[in-house]
TrEMBL record:
Domain ABC transporter: 9-251
Single GO term (MF): ATP hydrolysis activity
Keyword ATP-binding: yes
InterPro entries: AAA+_ATPase, ABC_transporter-like_ATP-bd, ABC_transporter-like_CS, ABC_trnsptr_F420-0_ATP-bd_pred, P-loop_NTPase
Keyword field: ATP-binding, Nucleotide-binding, Transport
Source taxon at top rank: Bacteria
Family annotation (PROSITE patterns): ABC_TRANSPORTER_1, ABC_TRANSPORTER_2
Name used for this protein in its record: Iron ABC transporter ATP-binding protein
Length: 275
């Protein structure tokens, strides 16, 4: 069994059944605080389901998730909300809210009994709006934003939570190339320096479809297929042509970037017929 990380994430033997089918099947993930991990895998592999289990939003059939050595299943809801943020693709609880108000929702678990934000809460929201280049959008209604702009608001809200564990479901979806790089650079920065208001250096786990972004920015990759971890470790060791063909059904040439030394994946065709 995976030993719970004393500072960081340790998920062990997680399993979850949906509509009679095992969609997460004995998953182990370990990630230290201050690290960035990418969760990879084809459509339907179980990435979103796994993020929900780790966030404590769905209860696993078996297995456990430890954060900072504590079993998250035993934390109170508010305590869990302080420690874990999940940035999903759509914010569903933001009718008629401005961008700033949506980002400020990230502070909710930290507010006192009167529910009133203090100077520090405002400062964290300001910093998160600035970090995600959203200052000019602060007063815009969230509902009027483009897909990529909303994606950045979702990230800013999760950052405003200053969590110990920052989970992201396809945070680069809808983003132009500059915004994609900006997002991954920001995630690396936050993992290294901690939250906007001096919060802890979080463990970052992001589901990504772009293997090149994962190869460039992740310390560690976890590859999921049919609900199981089929490979995990250093991107340069894991992301081989053979694994990419087996898991994604595409041919790829994997090169080494002359400056970064990281893998560059050039896709060349389909290895298996579409299903
Ligand atoms: N509400 C549901 N009822 C039944 N099956 C579901 C439900 N939601 C998801 N599934 C199934 O669970 C499996 C895992 O889905 P999940 O959304 O976790 O995959 P994913 O890796 O995030 O996929 P994608 O890359 O397409 O977002 C899939 O086979 C999916 O069809």
């Amino acid at each position: 069994m995976t030993r719970p990380e004393s500072a960081g994430l340790g998920a062990s033997r997680l399993a979850f059944t949906r509509a009679g089918r095992l969609v997460v099947d004995g998953v182990d993930i370990t990630a230290p605080a201050g690290s960035v991990s990418a969760l990879l895998g084809p459509n339907g592999a179980g990435k979103s389901t796994l993020l929900h289990l780790i966030a404590g939003l769905d209860r696993a059939d078996s297995g456990a998730v430890h954060l900072g050595g504590r079993d998250i299943g035993k934390l109170r809801r508010r305590d869990r909300a302080r420690r874990i943020a999940l940035a999903e693709q759509e914010v569903r609880d933001a009718p008629n809210l401005t961008v700033r108000e949506v980002v400020a929702l990230g502070r909710t678990p930290h507010l006192g009994i009167w529910g009133l934000p203090e100077a520090r809460d405002h400062a964290v929201v300001d910093r998160c709006l600035a970090d995600t280049e959203l200052v000019a959008f602060s007063d815009r209604p969230y509902d009027t934003l483009s897909g990529g702009e909303r994606q950045r608001v979702n990230l800013a809200r999760a950052l405003a939570q200053e969590p110990e564990l920052l989970l992201l479901d396809e945070p680069t979806n809808h983003l132009d190339v500059r915004a994609q790089l900006g997002t991954l650079i920001l995630l690396r920065e936050v993992a290294a320096r901690g939250g906007a208001g001096g919060g802890p250096a979080p463990t970052v786990l992001a589901a990504l479809h772009d293997l090149n972004l994962a190869a460039l920015f992740a310390d560690h990759v976890v590859v999921l297929a049919d609900g199981r971890v089929v490979a995990s470790g250093d991107p340069a060791e894991v992301l081989t042509s053979e694994l990419i063909a087996r898991v994604w059904g595409v041919w790829a040439t994997v090169l080494e970037h002359p400056q970064t030394g990281r893998p560059i994946i050039a896709f060349t065709g389909l290895a298996t017929p579409s299903q």
